[in-house]
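User: Show me an example of a complex going from sequences to structure tokens.

Assistant: Sure. Here are the input components:
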Amino acid sequence: MLHEVGLDDIRPIAIGAGILGTGGGGNPYLGSLQLRNEIARRGPQKIINPMHLDDDTRIVIVGGIGAPTVSIEKLSEGTEMLRAMRRLEAHLGYPFDAVAIAEIGGSNSMHPMIAGLQAGLPTIDSDGMGRAFPEIQMSSFLFDGAVFAAPLAMVDAGDNAIVIPQAATNIWAERMARNIAVSMGARAGLAGFVMTGAQLKATGIHYTLTLAHRLGLRVIRAQRDRDDVPQVAAEMLSGRVVFRGKISDVERRTTKGFARGTVTVQSFVGDDELRIDFQNEFLIAYHNGSVVATVPDLICIVTDETGEPVSTEMLRYGVRVAVLTVPAPQKLKTEAALRFVGPRAFGYDVAFRPLPGESIGIEPPTLELQTNQ
Amino acid sequence: MRIGIDVGGTNTDAVLMDGTTVVSSTKTPTTPNVTDGITTALRGVIDESGIDVSAIDGVMIGTTHFTNAVVERKHLTETACIRLGLPATVCLPPMVDWPDELRDVIGGHYYLAHGGHEFDGREISAFDENEIRGIAQQIADKGIKAVAISSVFSPVNTVFEEQAAAIVQDVIPDASLTLSSSIGRIGLLERENAAIMNACLRELAIRTIEGFKSALETMNIDAPFYMSQNDGTLMNADFAKEYPVLTFASGPTNSMRGAAFLSGLKDAIVVDVGGTTTDIGVLQHGFPRVAALAVDIGGVRTNFRMPDTYSIGLGGGSIISTDPLQVGPQSVGYELTTKGRIFGGDVLTTTDIIVASGKEDIADQSKVADVAADLIAGVEDAIEEMVNIAVDRMKTSATPVPVIVVGGGSILIQRDVAGSSEMVKPDHYPVANAIGAAIAQVGGECDRIFSLAEMNRDEALEQAKAEASEKAVAAGADASSVEIVEVEEVPLAYLPGNATRIMVKAVGNLKEG
């Protein structure tokens, strides 16, 4: 289990979180550069086991909201998450004790550590998605109705800040926050989801920072040993490699604050085709027209040779990729969860047929990997 | 007839080609001033063939000179970068992910200014003329002439970069400017990195390309003169002076295409053994396999389209050290023919070992008669292991594949590579690079804004692809060989009618005859 994150841990986490990001969650490379600067300046970040939290610990989550295609152009000012947290503390009239992770996928895995370092608070090894999702209401913290997205605070790179004290539902919170994010240039820092230690223990998808770290270490080792890296990554996540080929088309549009589009992958030999729709994240994959995987199960694209994650903003004509499908964490598969993260929540009229297996959100075994580090 | 030249770190190679026939070829050491080496090489191929220089239709030069300058951190000009995007972008300033020593060599000067655009075309903050003028004055005070300018979302709207450039040029009339929007795509850091590298290479580029020109003049050649680009196509020499960064990785591209041409193989591993390094690449359907995503050049991340190659420090000039036994990565490079033992020097190199083993007969074999048999065996084993590991790294499956060996240091490869189905050392293998330059491809581009209110996206893409292909054919490409190599789409949400910028590049082989 991770107890702290130092300079050497950043790259493994970036790779692991990139794969778990299912194409979204922001570019982990940029997030990792910023985390590197913070750790170099302030030392390693303390990570705490969610099950060791006191029941009354006051917890906030932070993350970026917007379109990933924008995040690689309009780089951060750097204190967005911290400023959003401070706004929310001022609104509530009390300080937070710890920062949890909104989504483990992409650079949103980095922001809670960056904000934690800047604020002098630890980061909790737990998130609300076990992957990345495009919208606020798609969080395991919220599904049982005890925790709410609002009050939440948002800031941009400049002097704009806003607090949303209340939202009728979490979908309303998403609606309002999304419009504000668009006006802020499809990129903003967000703090919200205020909860207690007891609530986090019940609703979080635990040990996902440790999982991202281990997945990254495994990928790096497989690269060094010249193993079939996509296959190794799939096995570690109880998933499988469903397709390998070359990207033959990328259609994208940035609408309503999301990066939306479709990517088509053509097999190396023969006429097989895999088509994947995305809305920040990869949502549904069709193999020659028939559905092979849907949200909330994970659809991950990695480079065919090196197994490095390929996010939606990096999709590019001609890149050789492998496509992985990975079973979603149990907390995303309940009836309550599927109302928000099942295929119908994204407008696809298909039933969710869960992939077998489980790897995300379970207590990590004590690995020999740790002695090898 | 065409002349292809490859200016490497160690050797300058030239070939004279009549259509697909190699008429003559030569290999000569690269000289410190580059020009002399080229002149010697040109004289070599022209004298050997006895042709009249008026029969030459074009000269194509490929060079690793600019890549090497960045890798070796040599001959780089002190450069300033101005980035427009405040208050955004502060936490990752220009050159943030560069190796320290490279940043130090070019001074690490950067300035963050207001400006930049949002994804939808709004301004992040207003362009401030006085601010830019003040920055330009600071740059002028430091005596810096090379300036790179980047602005957030400049591929969507270039206006702020252009306005800033006009002000800098006004304050520093002899400044040489590189705008990020003229070089790269979406992805601020990678585009800016390319712009800064280009800016710090411009002075060297002007000197070098003028040197190439004077070599041609010395030989009374007045045929058009081109430089090869990273994607295997040609650009004219004056354009190359402005954009030296576009020559990056043209060396491996040329050697792989040369190897494909000489061997007739379309799917193979290419092992290009030079004087200092060996580059291993993969041919797929006759083209170099392209690297996925970001590529590091000298430790700097870029998003150019480049061949996927793996380099090891093994070449014909690699220095042998004993106790413990080590081959390379230090090399005598272009000084092999003076410093190598068989040439009368006192440095033991890999070439000396191969000659000492009796497998090749070059220069004076008696000068290495004293090399112990176990040292020879040890070096041969070390070379075999280095190459086997590197080739295996580039393979995608365990299936044996043909291995094509090219380059001036090819004599080092005396044993079959593990996992090879056959070993091919084609005719003219030492000059595969120069042949690759001579048969360089021609490209055509379409880069314009389509309104998707008037046609659907598929129609717009088809139109852009057809336009790019037509331009490639018009530039001399054989229509049957034209391939679309790049498609890039940038939605321009600020323009009415669902506007999108579509960039397509098509590339094809030069038509014979």
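The lines above are the inputs; the final block is the predicted structure for all two components together. The mean pLDDT of chain B is 90.
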